[in-house]
Amino acid sequence: xxxxxxxxxxxxxxxxxxNRLMVISDYHRAFVAAFKRDDVSLxxxxxxxxxxxxxxxRTGCFSKGNEPFNKGKxxxxxxxxxxxxxxxxNRTGTASINWKPVGTERISQDGYREIKVHEGLPMQSxxxxxxxxxxxxxxxxxxxxHALKCLDGDRANVDPSNWELVSRAVLAxxxxxxxxxxxxxxxxSPEVKPLVMAIAKLKDLARAVRx
Length: 211
Fold this sequence. Notes:
211 residues, alpha+beta, Homing Intron 3 (I-Ppo) Encoded Endonuclease, Chain A, 2 domains, 8 helices, 5 strands
C-alpha cells in the first residue's frame, strides 16, 4: 500500500526469497494464497525483489539459440496492415524515382563512366567503372595493388587500348610525385606521355632493385 511500509514475517521473507525465480504473476498469486496477504500487491512484491537485489535470472532478452514462438508461422491477415505492407519487387517513394535498370550508365564526379552491373548487395558494388569492366573483358582481372591509367586523358574513352595496367607505385610517380617535382603524365603533351610513363616505370624498377 502506497505511503505505508509493508512488513513481512520471517516465514514470509524466507518463502519470498526461496521462490524469487517465479514469474511475478505466479509469485504474487502463490504468496497471497499461502499467507492470506490480500494487502500485498504484485507491484509490492516486484519492488521488494528489486530492493533485495534478488536476481530472477531473466534479462528480458532472447538468449542465443532461442527461437521466437511465431517463427515459421504465417502472419494473420489484417486488412489495415496489408494495405501498407511492402510488396516484393515493388519500389515506392524516392527509391522508385532514383532506381535505374542494370546496364544504365552515368558519369562520376571525377569524370569516369560507370555502369550498373547488378541489383544485389552490397549496394556499393552495383555500379562499376566502365573502363575496368571493358578492360577485364579483354585482359582478365586486375592484379592486386594495380590500377588502370588513362593514356589519352579522356576518361570517358573506355576502349581497353586507352588504358594501361600499372602498379600503384608507378601510378603515384605518374602524378608528378608528392611535391610535383617532375612532369605529371596528364600534363604532358601526347608525344611526351610515353617518355613520362617509361621514366616512371624505370624509377620504380630501380627502387625495387635497391630494396
